[in-house]
Amino acid sequence: MICNVPTPREVLLCMNAMPHTADSHSRGRDIRRILIEDFDNGFTAMVREYQPGIYSGARRLTAGPHDAEDVAQDTFVRAYKALSEYEPERIAELKIRPWLWTIALNLCRSRARTKAAEFEFQESDAAITDEPEAFDEAAWVARLGSLNDAQRTAVVLRYVLDLPIAEIAEATERPVGTVKADISRALDRLRLTMKAEVLHAR
User: Given CA atoms 185, 188, 194, 199 in this order, what sign does their dihedral have?
Assistant: First the structure.
């Protein structure tokens, strides 16, 4: 029955590899403070805090794990070069996570252009649910891959990486309203696809 099919939001939340926690903002403040006081230690703390999420998202926005590793590594290489030239006042005001995602998304797009291919979503070992019978993740990877670029990126950042809408808007350099519309359209399309699949299977 259609009512037994998990909703797009439920499935995407099951795939969430980096859950958002209440103290994320406080950790961001701590990292900014350490960056100002002791740059190398602060940068190490920043990598430890944010690299898993960057890799997890890049894993779904590139052609495979090797590309995702390169994107994650290059993101922090570029971040190091930029931060080393920032004044303390600028670091103190920096919103680290969306700033890093701006770098990472640009790298993902650059790789896609170089390979003349659209973004592809790949299965991540870290994202496999403990209850695989609840849904076919491979099928969901294909469904997500059918969305357009903006919708895929917004959905992954919102439901898989658990970024707030405001941070997604900053990272993608798109208005908040546009990001919300991308997510809404993506969920609507996924919902219709799921219903059609269930009806076809009867």
Answer: negative
